[in-house]
Specification:
Elements lengths: L32 H36 L3 H30 L3 H5 L2 E5 L7 H16 L4 H11 L9 H6 L1 E5 L1
Antiparallel strand pairs: 1-2
Helix pairs in contact: 1-2, 4-5
């Protein structure tokens, strides 16, 4: 009986055995500490800007109404309604941006977003109840609040660049 010819050293029908490194095209890059600080300042400046405009309008309009002898109660109520409407509209815009993109107004301006530490999308409920609410409640405790308000942002100088609110909510801030 005749033996089949020996198999070639390389089998052309075998699966490829080339080493291929995994490609992570969507790797997350942490946002710069300085840019996070600037975004926080800009978000605060937006709120303070609205409050300043309302204060200037109140300082100019209300004394003028008193000099004319008009009904001040109606003007005060109208001013209060406008002030509340402006603050609620700012809150709604930020909540919509946080829900859709994981960004506030300033984070969107500077190209940053908030994601979970594994890179997945962060829900609005997590942003509110795990990232914002605990730190807000801790910061209003007398004496302890001052210490916490100092420690929270200083933790950004850790290697993983996560503040206390990031650690509590399991989030990171990355470049968008």
């Amino acid at each position: 009986m005749q033996q089949p010819p020996p198999l070639p050293h390389i089998n052309p029908y075998a699966a490829p055995v080339a080493r291929i490194d995994d490609y992570h095209g969507d790797q997350l890059v942490l946002a710069d500490r300085a840019m996070r600080l600037v975004a926080k300042i800009v978000d605060g400046a937006i709120v303070l800007g609205i409050i300043a405009v309302l204060g200037i309008v109140a300082a100019v309009a209300l004394p003028a109404l008193q000099n004319n002898g008009q009904n001040n109660e109606a003007a005060m109520i109208a001013f209060g309604v406008v002030a509340i409407a402006l603050m609620i509209s700012l809150l709604v815009v930020n909540l919509v941006l946080l829900h859709r993109h994981g960004q506030t107004i300033a984070k969107r301006m500077f190209g940053m977003r908030i994601v979970r530490s594994d890179g997945s999308r962060c829900s609005l409920l997590r942003l509110i109840f795990a990232r914002w609410l605990p730190t807000t409640l801790l910061s209003i405790i007398p004496l302890l609040g001052y210490v916490f308000s100092l420690i929270d942002p200083l933790l950004i100088f850790r290697l993983d660049q996560r503040c206390m609110h990031d650690l509590i909510a399991d989030t990171i801030v990355v470049k968008a």
